Amino acid sequence: MNDWAPIAKEYDPLKAGSIDGTDEEPHDRAIWRAMLARYVPNKGVTGDPHLTLFVARLNLQTTEEKLKEVFSRYGDIRKIRLVRDLVTGFSKGYAFIEYKEERALLKAHRDANRLVIDQHEIFVDFELERTLKGWIPRRLGGGFGGKKESGQLRFGGRDRPFRKPINLPNMKNDFYGEGSAEKRNWSREGTRDWRTRDRDHERSREKRWPERERSWAWGDSERERDSKEERSRGRERKDRDRKDRDRDRSRERDAKKPRDDDKHR
Predict the structure, then answer these.
(1) Rounded distance, CA 225 to CA 219, Å?
(2) Of the candidates 129, 121, 131, the residue with the CA atom closest to the CA atom of residue 159
(3) Element (H, E) at 75
(4) Where are the beta strands (DSSP E) in the chain?
(5) Tell me, what DSSP letter sits at residue 149?
(6) What is the rounded distance in angstroms from the CA atom of residue 137 to the CA atom of residue 33?
(7) How far apart, in whole angstroms, are the C-alpha atoms of residue 90 and residue 26?
(8) How far is CA 160 from each of CA 58, 113, 148, 163, 260, rounded to the nearest angstrom?
(9) For 52-76, what is each residue's pLDDT tens digit?
(10) Cβ–Cβ < 8 Å for 104, 51
(11) Which of 39, 98, 113, 252 is the most exposed place for a label (fewest CB within 10 A)?
(12) What is the pTM of this model?
C-alpha cells in the first residue's frame, strides 16, 4: 500500500467504483460500461487544460457575468465557458474557467470550492477531461462523485477521495488449523483443541437436557395444581354465597308471617 493516494493519478473505472480503490470485480453495470468505453476528449475544446477549472452544481439561472464577477477576485480570467443545451440553450449547471496564471488557478481551486453562488453551493476542481489519463465521463459510467441515491458513487476525486484500505490479518488459515505447527498444536501447550471442546459441550448439553425436561414437567404440574386449587376455591365461594342468600330469604319469610297473621285478625 506504499503507492496508495486519496486522489487518483490515473483514471480506472474499476477502482473509481470502489471506496478504497481495491475492488477486483465491478459492482454495477455502469462500471462495466465505463470499462468498455473508448472515450476521446473533445478536440473542439481550446485553451490550456492545466490552467482550467471545472465548476459544477451551479444554479441554472447563473450566468457567465456572475461567474466572472465571482472568480475574477482570484486572478485574471482568460475565458469562461458555461455549458448550455444545444437545443434549448439553457445552462446545464457546470462551466469551465481558464485563468492566465497558475497562481490564480491554485488560489481559486483552494478557496472557491463550496462557495455559495445564487443559493447553490458549487463544486470546484481541476479540469480532468484533458489532464487525467484514461478519463471516462459520467455519462459513460465514469466520472467522480455522484449521489448515494443513485447507487453509483465514484471515488478518487476531490469530492469523494479514496479511503485508506484496512489491512486485516489473514485469519482464515489459523481458524481452520492450517497455520504453523506451533499454532496448530494447541493441546501440547495444555489447551484443549476445538474438537475436544465441542465434544464436552455436547456431553454437557445432553446432561442438561433431562434437567430441563424435569423442570418443565415440574412447572406443568405446578400450574395444574394451582389451577385446580383456584377452581375449588371458586366453588367454595359460590356455595357460601348461595347459603347466605338462602338464609336471608328464610329470615324474610319468617318476619312476614307475624304481620300476615295480624291482618287476618
Answers:
(1) 10
(2) 121
(3) none
(4) 52-56, 77-84, 91-99, 116-117, 120-121, 123-126
(5) G
(6) 11
(7) 35
(8) 19, 14, 11, 9, 107
(9) 999 999 999 999 999 999 999 999 9
(10) no
(11) 252
(12) 0.60
